[in-house]
Amino acid sequence: MVIEQIYTGCLAQGAYYIESEGESVIIDPLREVQPYLDKAEKQGSKIKYILETHFHADFVSGHVELSKKTNAPIVFGPTAKPSFEAIIATDGQVLEVGKVKIKVLHTPGHTMESSCFLLIDENGKDYALFSGDTLFIGDVGRPDLAQKSDLTIYDLAGYLFDSLRNKVMTLANDVLVYPAHGAGSACGKNMSKETFDTLGNQKMFNYALRANMSREEFIKEVTDGLELVPPPYYFPQNVMMNKSGAKDLSLVLKDAQPLSVQAFEAAANETGALIIDTRKADIFKEGFIPNSINIGISGDFAPWVGTLVTDIKQPLLLVVEDDNLNEAITRLSRVGYDNVIGYLEDGFQSWVEAGKEIDIIQSISAEDFALKFKESEGKLMVKDVRKPTEYMAEHIEEAMNIPLANLSKNMVEFSKSEPNYIHCAGGYRSMIACSILKARGFDNIVDVAGGFAQIAKTDIPKTDFVCQSKMK
């Protein structure tokens, strides 16, 4: 028996390859399916089933394309209603793969079709639980991501309580837990950086699995704070793509065309395409195409595109270094942004050599920022674009929290006359914010390089209590 977790850090997502006696299954595959095909071929195994724990919201799955290429059936848990042919398993149904068995456990709560897959080894022992978004390491799935229905998030949280108590916590403590996500995913609130654990450890340390927890306490704790971190706009659109099946990734990669400077400029003007510059923040700030938005490929690129670009069909133009081109398009496709109409041939340097207008972002060090802060007696316009939880933990006195995800709704909070000093934790999100503000006509934007990590080393006054009037 072989179990392999195929973890993709930029999405904090875990897919799984399980093999026994020349037969294999893939659980929750990403959109690019070739790695799974290559793995099966290398191992000399035949993919027998493609298992989906639920209709994913945070990424586009490759289940339909993988099924087409292997003839392996797609398996969902009870109540799933895809628009393509699939096995809709019953609760407790057992699938045989070589000498092992996989038992379907219907665990509604995160969504109503959510299911876990229990791997039973050659000796008939419960060995591992592939828990999807039902149970994470240190957390459980959010109950506010399901498609709209008559059920409230409190109803779904109640279902999740029952699923965990009746289907998951009854399993032996030595059963391994392999979730669909780890820290960084928006599908939970407080996931661990660990990507697997024993169920026994989770019963001890996961707040949602406390033995003495009442149903009411569970619902309150699981739903608490969800309003502070709303799900990204692309989530429901990804669900629909996963229900209907997405376009083959190979076709998406072919759609993006190399464009000369003149053609790139014409495309931007004629199509209303959004220009996304994927270079690193410290390079972008030194010069960029006016009105372009910096979302660096080196960070949480696709999730931030999905959070900030509200229309999944928005035409996109990319400024990207050649060796990152396929990576950028692939990452965008993972979250359903397939409409990349072109990219600047030969990158930003070709724009400079053509003598085209460029813009810059003013940036200062944390030390220089601290001096200005003192000279102003704390009266600078400081905007902290970190998450509310980060701000609550510690922040600069007098700084206003405007999370990057909420930036567009809070433009009125930025001054048109005084300098706006923007920071995040390390500089990635603040440069995104600065580029958006620049594109919206704010020319008095100053990025604090290194973010709060560097600011914390200065003697600027800080506080760790929440000042509600300074959060947006």
TrEMBL record:
GO terms for molecular function: hydrolase activity; metal ion binding; sulfur dioxygenase activity. Keywords: Hydrolase, Metal-binding. PROSITE patterns: RHODANESE_3. GO terms for biological process: glutathione metabolic process; hydrogen sulfide metabolic process. It comes from the Bacteria. Pfam families: Lactamase_B, Rhodanese. Residues 269-360, 384-464 form the Rhodanese domain. Gene3D superfamilies: Rhodanese-like domain, Ribonuclease Z/Hydroxyacylglutathione hydrolase-like. CDD domains: POD-like_MBL-fold, RHOD. PANTHER family: PERSULFIDE DIOXYGENASE ETHE1 (PTHR43084), PERSULFIDE DIOXYGENASE ETHE1, MITOCHONDRIAL (PTHR43084:SF1). This is Glyoxylase-like metal-dependent hydrolase (Beta-lactamase superfamily II).
